[in-house]
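Cross-posted from the bioinformatics board.
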Amino acid sequence: MSVENGIGASVRRKEDQRFITGNGHYLDDMNRAGQAYGYFLRSPYAFAKIKNIDLSAAKSAPGVVDIFTGADMVADGIGGLICGWGITSKDGSPHKAPPHNSMAVDAVRHVGDQVAFVIAETLEQAKNAAELIEVGYEVLTPVTNIAKALAPGAPQIHEEAPGNLCYDWELGDKAAVDAAFANAAHVSKIDLVNNRLSPNPMEPRAALGEYDAGSGELTLHTTSQNPHVARLIMSAFLGIAPENKLRVVAPDVGGGFGSKIFVYAEETTTIWAARKINRPVKWTADRSEAFLTDAHGRDHVTHAELATDNDGKILAFRVSTKANMGAYLSTFASAVPTYLYGTLLSGQYKIPSIYCEVQAGFTNTTPVDAYRGAGRPEATYVVERMMDTAAKDLKMDPTEFRLKNFIQPDAYPYETPVIMTYDSGDYPLAMNLAKEMIDYNGFAARKAQSEANGKLRGIGVAAYIEACGIAPSAAVGSLGAGVGLWESAEVRFNPTGSVTVFTGSHSHGQGHETTFAQIIADKLGVPIDSVEVVHGDTSKVPFGMGTYGSRSLAVGGSAIVKAVDKIVEKSKKIAAHLMEASVEDIEHEHGVFSVAGTDKKLTMGEIAFAAYVPHNYPADLEPGMAENAFYDPLNFTFPAGTHIAEVEIDPATGVVDIVDWAAADDFGNVINPMIVEGQVHGGVAQGIGQALLEGVIYDEESGQLLTGSYMDYCMPRADDLPNFRVATTNTPCPSNPLGVKGCGEAGAIAGPAALMNAIVNAIGKDIDMPATPEKVWRAINSN
Amino acid sequence: MYSFDYERPSGVNEAASAIGEDDKFLAGGQTLIPTLKLRLAQPGKLVDLSGISELKGISVNGSELSVGAMTRHVDVADSADVKSAIPALAQLASHIGDAQVRNRGTIGGSISNNDPAADYPAALVGLGATVHTNKRSISAEDFFVDLFETALEDGELVTKVTFPIPEKAGYAKFPNPASRFALTGVFVAKTASGVRVAVTGAGPCVFRQTDMEAALSSNFSPDAVSGIKTEASGLNADIHASADYRANLITVMAARAVKAAS
Ligand SMILES: Cc1cc2nc3c(=O)[nH]c(=O)nc-3n(C[C@H](O)[C@H](O)[C@H](O)COP(=O)(O)OP(=O)(O)OC[C@H]3O[C@@H](n4cnc5c(N)ncnc54)[C@H](O)[C@@H]3O)c2cc1C
């Protein structure tokens, strides 16, 4: 029996009605009585000492309520922002996490660093007053490039981090790798830059702080992907208010892509200031501020080498990466180039030994942290560009080389040399499917046709793997995480049979209100329109860890299933009582409870009603029908697959036209195929953006951000994208009850490598992302 | 934005007398409003031209096409008159920015702003158009002076642009991938007074490529220009493209414009 709108149905997203009719509840639309407006004066310099700040003229400007600086927050005992993942260097020393105050105290370290918070009756008045603040700066020479920042003689950004080094980390068996390389028949090498990206969610960050002097409660509405984590950090580390007096609400949030995981200076300042002035304060970033202050992504420089034997078998892999952390360590920044990166360097391949070392350093740039894929796109990019390079060196077809080295479907659980245990998958299946979808074997003929038209044609493969469902708490704890990464849920029946599901995960575009409702519909037979999904409010939902790392369904969905199991267990007892049968004889399917071998049955709705009106009820059972659960995953999940891109290039201009794209992804079981396909489209679009169009550029001399608006920072648009061929291969995940693996990041992980391999294949030369027309043109015309 | 006064006159003379030294005309606002929002300009008053009906509209008078200053890009792109008289001009207008920009932006605003990457300057210079103001008539080549600089005096108002109708014309634009302005755009026209080739986006201001004009005068075909290089020195270089690449684009776009000419 299948259920209407249950698991596997492409149900239209319930939340879209409100989003597309302008009835969403986004932060900047919220206003409170007596609300004042906050505006940040930001540093115009990349690196400078602050000698003095004169607020006198600004404070007496029309409409000004108050103006605060970093010194005021420090004087109030407010702590700095933290990094929640401790990385240990090769020499055993902990990573360097220099102080990170919400507003600068004695120095500014990137353009856009917060200097003062001006609060006025209107935003324009706050901006006018900010222009009257006089800051005495002693301008210092900045450094923005990571290789230069880590080189001797670079400007010293933080006293606490000599040589600008945050950590020098390693993973894997160096001696084994060196030995394998020493005896290898072939060694292939590659140098790569993983370009820095600006996350660009549609809704800029915003915060609304309120203080209730009566109850002493603070309420912060903020654009967060994980409001409980934000509350925890603000309470435990900044000392804004105890957790029981601080409510954090993340309402409808218009996209995040990781950038709204982090606890930012602006939200901590806004909520702190609301109490100081005892009035609601609202701050909303404009797009220029978003470019300057939303944590960026990627920014790696990597050298990699692969050792192979004469049969084209991989022997060992060696990777050395420099990662740019920006001016301060953002909330999870340290984990991205280490445990979310080095651990994925085995890709889909049987590689006997791997060694990876990562030096992370500080620069005078916006902090860098997780962005869609977070570490895994960087790993896939290294692995998959490397595989193509090696295949070329060995004169093998890149898919044959990969198929030869894949971990085979019967090899699970498979332990990689970089501490992951892959649980399931079928890599050859996905690759062969993608090849078939794009007619890989017909490529030569298409290439000849392009050549006849004066065009270059290329095809590129990326066989990616990611570790999602983040994450088993004990495992991440042993690797330095400061938190557990379980998830919470409550499934609460109302007396009339409708259901409210509370989840600790957070939807900022992913479609949880639909997917999670489908689980309830499937398991308990409740129509999806009778299921409400509540998330994002610390005063409503149990403590949860939020949404990132493609974890919501695998971890949050599993918590919901656990709560559903408890509901079913209790309902069986009630059903047995009402139908005068023994509990063992009660059978349950999709919300219908029947007595085995009879036609007696009760629906979930009838049982829920009985639980709330327990006139005829088991004596030893609590009334009510609400259960909560916490789920801590047993392992990561390992979505994997193959994407193949095909391009045609105009040699006269270097313009790359993506003519075809095939994506064969193994996401485990799929709850809503339409939403999954949308996630693949969006992810690939961002992957294409990284490969062709996007890139944050700083002026190396002044440290100014040169790509500070859409006039200069190029986001992908519909006409930059091809039609996608999308298919899934579904090997169920063995470690969670839904058998799901996660799909939110796959496209952004596979995309850049597939596309760059296609371009390199077409032009016969290595180039770095973004492959702008000029870069491609220069490569074609260089010798 | 800083606060300012606002006036919406209904005639050209009224507008001319309303404008003061620190004031600005407001046309489609597609350049001016973002500038105000970023607090990069602080006009005392905006004199909104949208109420002046004589500034709007398109007409053909014999050998001349006339476009009023307040005519929006979308109206030029969609005009049957423009499409039949100078199809390349309609095509050019249809590729300015995006639909929202074309629904508000005007030809008068575009040329008065003289963004080095704007499309219209190429058409005006390429076709040998005349810019009419409330005071005088100025040839296109004299009108566009330098980067964001025109021959307009303070308070001078563009009223319309007249284009001699060419035998054939074509425009090829290589859009900046981010802004979609012209990284390089080349307008080619075969006119009664000879062949003209105007280049926008590549230099600080629109300019004529005379070597190409000479070559096309004897042989109006893509091959005639595909070997002609432009000196890169003096061309724009920025994060989007080097001067060398822009020089290459001039050649490629010129050949494509000739091929597309109709
Ligand atoms: C996202 C975006 C993309 C764009 N892409 C392109 C593109 O691809 N190609 C392109 O060419 N342009 C592009 N533009 C610019 C667009 O064409 C603008 O419309 C144009 O630059 C200004 O026209 P406007 O009518 O909006 O003028 P406004 O912004 O109102 O005014 C611009 C300036 O001209 C002055 N002015 C206006 N009218 C007159 C007049 N009649 N007489 C004297 N002075 C006057 C104003 O005082 C002001 O200084 C783009 C703009 C945006 C926002």
